[in-house]
Amino acid sequence: MNQEKNKNLALCDAFIRDFQSFETQLNGQSTTQFHKERIKAISTFAELGFPTTRDEKWKYTNISSFLKKEFSLAASSKVDKSQIEPFLFDGMQKSRLVFVNGIFSAELSSLDENNGVVAKSLEAAHKENKEVVEKYLAQHLIFSDQPFAALNTAFARDGAFIFVPRNTIAAQPLHLLFISSSDSVPFHSHPRNLIVLAESSELQLVESRHFVGDQEQIYFNNFAAEIIVGANAKLDLVRIQDESKSAFQFSSLQAKVDRDAHFSFTGVDLGGSISRNDTNIEFTGENAGAQLLGFYYANGTQLLDNHTFIDHAVPHCNSDELFKGFMDDQSHGVFNGAVLVRPDAQKTNAFQQNQAILISKDATVDAKPELEIFADDVLCSHGATIGEIQEEHLFYLRSRGIGEEMARAMLHIAFANDIFERIKIESVREKLEDEIIKRFSE
Amino acid sequence: MPQTPIKSEYDDKFGSPEQQETIEKITKSEYKWGFTTDIDTDLAPKGLNEDIVRFISAKKEEPEWLLEWRLKAFRQWQKMVEPKWPNVKYPEIDFQDAYYYAAPKQQKQLESLEEVDPKLRETFDKLGISITEQKRLTGVAVDAVMDSVSVATTFQKELQKHGIIFGSFSEAVKNHPELVRKYLGSVVPYTDNFYAALNSAVFSDGSFCYIPKGVRCPMELSTYFRINAANTGQFERTLIVAEEGAYVSYLEGCTAPMRDENQLHAAVVEIFVHDNAEVKYSTVQNWYPGDENGKGGVYNFVTKRAITHENAKVSWTQVETGSAITWKYPSVILKGDNSIGEFYSVALTNNYQQADTGTKMMHLGKNTRSTIISKGISAGKSQNSYRGLVRVGKNAENARNFSQCDSLLIGDKCGAHTFPYLEIKNSSAQVEHEATTSKIGEDQIFYLLQRGISEEDAINMIVNGYCKEVFRELPMEFAVEAQKLLAVSLEGSVG
């Protein structure tokens, strides 16, 4: 009923109109196999419309402020090398791909060919790595009931393409940097990443999303990623989201993890007026593992939403999930973690934990940890705690002569550290720790 | 629907708009059921319309206000849609293909227990139900020594001494209309949900319990209730009111298997707890779950809710082993400061049973506390879901909640699901939720087996130990029966 209401919005029509002009700009790409998916996706989107809070998956995520805005198709913007300097990490200077408003910037990127990894823009990969792209692109991310994933698929043109060949261990971590810069009109951009690790390969990857310019700039970033971790491969992905405080950030990630493989994901969410992440992991082979970590810090009127879904489709897999967050001012935090253990997925171990601390009286937290279990020989648990810092802990520190403000800061950092200490790349970890301390002291 | 009660000249002449509407409805109705005084039939025709509602009300000789209330509920129900969100599957119910009123059936009087279905007797023996009670439950004529009527009368006298009102809902409507009118729908309004609206329109009977100020009910109301448990009908309505400082412990249901012809059950339980009062409500439900192939069985769609005022306490304890489909969320609205809500549940599903059950704790007052302990056991091809909501409102300073939801799986064809919802709007809240799912440990079974205990007994022991936290909340005699009930319900799920 209410679903109908969000279907015929001006914003939906605008996207459908934009798609028509987008099609004409594709120069030849419109004959590819993938373009058929785009057409399918836009009609799916037209059918679905934007979700409402009536939708169980969007129960706590009210996007009405987003629906009132207008956006136009992203164009590249002039960004200097000096402007991206603060977002770079030590040790990754020669292995980065930079995208501005979702469009690959060869000028800002820097790649050392000796890394053993194929890393390039998706647009280039369409021509140069046709076989891999056709095999995997749009084959895993399901959009039939996901309007944002459908919208991304419809507009997907550029993004990162990463392919790690068989038995290759990447010499150094790779950095994907997505910069947004909205000069005048709010834009919409739909970066699409395809990350494929072939059998027995290894890669450490950092993806960060930043903006240049002022905090008030409005834009709509709608990311989607498909990740294939082949048999016995290992992928470690850290994703940092620090968009402008007025931006709308949506992100759909679908990972498939094959036998004996391991996928480790850490998501850090700091920015965005509304930020919604859908992180889905599916095990496709036995004895695979996944670690899913999340940290979020919201203030002002931010809405940060993390939805995770772990699909134990096969036996003998392990998943371990920990999400921690702070909610300040009038912010709103949402966590929904679902774990599905399918029939016959015996010997599954699945752990999930969500902890949120409310710093301000006006902050809100909604948490929904779900377990759906259809096999009996499993060990699954989930836990959720919501509250403020425990008085006893504070008292302990204060009785040792530490001032209240300092004691609080120490406890906050200790709380966040559960996530940060598990980040393996040192330069990333240090930078994040500094950033969090800076935000707490603001 | 609600019309503004502006009194005009017109209204003076023809009655209020509401009355006019009623008059209009009556004059337009197709066939006037229940408006002749000499009705022979005790069975209303199939289907549901306003006439049936009037028929039920007339049959029960209800006052005008109650009929009005039923009709309002019925009109509300017509506007509502059946909820589809519970994690259960069943063929669509045709609400027009059911009887909504049937006078209590006179059971065939049997001469002796020999005539009773031996399978049923076997179950009684396993549960340890006394011969007298077996007779009563199966409709065998009871001898004079244990005349249920006289026992009931003794209890009734004792209760009257304390000013406690306890009896059937229809009696209460006749004898204490002011109390019923004051509290009916005050906790579960007829607009609440689809099945609550349906119940409000056509409720058959139920119990009414009123504990006056400062009175501590001297007995578990269970004992009496068990004697009168039979034939309360499929749309049961229970209303419990505890005045300031009162206390009552109430038990609903029975461990004995209930063979019921009615497939759809939609009960409503309302508990109104004044300042400093305490109500303990225990349920044992063992309705017909359908056969091993999932044929038949009762659909149990229940709305249970309590509202607590300052320093009050409500404790729900439930043992759910029956029904093909259970859909039930006993809730507490913690309105008053320092009030307490508790929920202890064991839900066992076997064969093709489906259960979607849990609780809602709404923290509104300051320093409110709630505890949720839920133990789900799934066996056979059953599906068992816990669905719970903990909501801490903006003004609920220092609210505290602890939830623990454990699921136990027996066999690899069943499912156990957990859907907790935590909605927190106050930073001083402390909310903790934890859930685990696992099967019975092989080491535990091995330990018991090597001590000469059979596998079936071993599993029963482990399951009972697992449910201990809930059983110890039950009144003593029922705790013992509940343990045996679990064993009976789990039969055939091992090996």
Overview of the molecule:
- The complex is a heterodimer of chains A (442) and B (495).
- By secondary structure, chain A is an alpha/beta fold.
- Chain A has 11 helices and 22 strands.
- In chain A, the strands form 2 sheets. In chain A, strands 1, 5, 6, 8, 9, 11, 13, 15, 17, 19 and 21 form an 11-stranded mixed β-sheet that branches.
- Chain B is an alpha/beta fold and 495 residues long.
- A 7-stranded parallel β-sheet of chain B has the order 4-7-9-12-15-17-19.
- Chain B is globular and about 75 Å long.
- The chains are: A alpha/beta (442), B alpha/beta (495).
- At the A-B interface, strand 21 and strand 22 of A face strand 17, strand 18 and strand 19 of B.
- Strand 21 of chain A pairs antiparallel with strand 18 of chain B, so a sheet runs across the interface.
Concise synopsis of the structure shown:
Chain A is an alpha/beta fold. Chain A has helices spanning 2-5, 10-24, 33-48, 64-67, 81-84, 122-128, 130-136, 147-155, 391-398, 404-420, 426-441, and strands spanning 72-73, 95-100, 103-104, 110-111, 118-121, 160-164, 174-180, 187-189, 192-197, 202-211, 220-229, 234-241, 248-257, 262-269, 274-283, 289-298, 303-312, 318-327, 332-341, 348-358, 364-373, 378-387.
Write the layout of secondary structure elements.
The complex is a heterodimer of chains A (442) and B (495).
Chain A (H helix, E strand, L loop, with lengths): L1 H4 L4 H15 L8 H16 L15 H4 L4 E2 L7 H4 L10 E6 L2 E2 L5 E2 L6 E4 H7 L1 H7 L10 H9 L4 E5 L9 E7 L6 E3 L2 E6 L4 E10 L8 E10 L4 E8 L6 E10 L4 E8 L4 E10 L5 E10 L4 E10 L5 E10 L4 E10 L6 E11 L5 E10 L4 E10 L3 H8 L5 H17 L5 H16 L1
Parallel strand pairs in A: 1-8, 2-7, 6-9, 7-10, 8-11, 9-11, 10-12, 11-13, 12-14, 13-15, 14-16, 15-17, 16-18, 17-19, 18-20, 19-21, 20-22
Antiparallel strand pairs in A: 2-3, 2-4, 5-6
Helix pairs in contact in A: 3-8, 9-10, 10-11
Chain B lengths: L8 H6 L2 H12 L21 H10 L4 H16 L38 H10 L3 H8 L9 H14 L3 E4 H7 L1 H7 L10 H9 L4 E5 L9 H7 L9 E6 L4 E7 L10 E2 L2 E6 L4 E8 L13 E10 L4 E8 L4 E4 L2 E4 L5 E10 L4 E4 L2 E4 L5 E11 L3 E10 L7 E11 L4 E10 L5 E10 L2 H8 L5 H12 L1 H4 L4 H15 L5
Parallel strand pairs in B: 2-3, 3-6, 4-7, 5-8, 6-8, 7-9, 8-10, 8-11, 9-12, 10-13, 11-14, 12-15, 13-16, 14-16, 15-17, 16-18, 17-19
Antiparallel strand pairs in B: 1-2
